[in-house]
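hi support,

uploading two proteins for the ticket. first:
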Amino acid sequence: MKKLHVLIAAAALLMSSCSPIIRTPEEFSSGITDYSTFAKKGFFITESNSVNFDYQPIGSVYVKQQAGYEVLSNTTKQKVYSDDVIGGKSTEDFNTLKIGSKFIPLDINRGLKEIHFQSEKSGANGIINLKITHWNGGYSITGMAIKK
């Protein structure tokens, strides 16, 4: 019986010593998203889903950005040759992107300018229920475009 306990303890020790300990650094950030530039233009933005004035709903509006490298030019066509299952040859055109070396970081202000532009383009002069969602490497901004 003692041999069984020793064997189980040894197996548990062996299994736990083989798994690496993953340590991630602490992440801490803070800041403010400034809506005042839009208010100065007469554009209303609120994170609230209800307001105390009448409005006409225009539509849902969203922006999504993923950090990455800039695209240098338009897509180019690339021919891809492949053998199909039966043995025939086929040719297909695929679009390929030319990726540059300049990294484009996340920019919430750029997203806010775009959601403002899209809202005004549709005839809105405000957004209610604005939500900014962050994830690793990206964010999305959603809301309801309205006309006061």
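and the second one:
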Amino acid sequence: MSVFLRDLKRFLLVAFGGFLMALNIVIFVQSADLFPGGLTGITLLLQNIFLKYFNIHLPYSITVYAFNLIPVWIGFKFIGKRFTFFSVVMIFISGLFTDILSGFEWLHLTDDILLCTVFGGILNAVSVVLCLFAESSSGGTDFIAIYISEKTGRSAWNLIFGFNCIVLFFAGILVGWDKALYSIIFQYASSQVTTLLYKKYSKITLLIITDKSDEIYATIKNLTNHGATVFEGRGEYSGKTHKMVYTVVSAAESGSLEKHLRTVDPNAFINVIESKDILGRFFKRQPD
């Protein structure tokens, strides 16, 4: 795929993700007065406070753009310029369409706070994952979560969830505990669906019993750039000697790799194990 087509695909993903984010804020979040995670939640909280106590309407877009200045700088400095550029596209589109769609009353679907909490959390996760698939983010604390994940090799979404709960503590004091508690459910649903759909930071161990170890290793190296270790052993049932190829890849790479390995050696016996933790050198593609 050419660089132009790849960037076009990334742009379309972040644009759609940004539109879904805005749609979710208008249909579910604002309808139930919820507070999503990160800077989006802080922006909505400030809008609520200024409107309630000072009768001043803060534009969502301008406020969230201002809050994202420092995270965007972190992205350019420590993560990747192209990664940050597409993240900025997502931030701009989500902010712009949130203000535009807020004027359409027909987008109000339900006043049921539980429905808004659950489906809002799911839709929020989908919009975030679309950006992650485009090798970008939805901005705000996502920059921080990805920075931590890239440095440690572990998912940081639950850490961000904990930070968001602290923010919601203050939201409960200022605007009411019922909205804050439902927002915790919203954020929990969003973080769990994000972890379920996005597997980059999960690790999979493959144990492959094969008679074509060289071809198997070449496939692993070409597709994932990961190494492998080859052991020799004897099958007690057949009494024959076979090779076992041991490798660790990311969960996002595992599905495609297994299909290619099956093509290389249809008779291979492949044991797929979820790895809890990996210590030592492990190849990771860095954001561009």
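thanks. also noticed: The chain has a mean pLDDT of 83.
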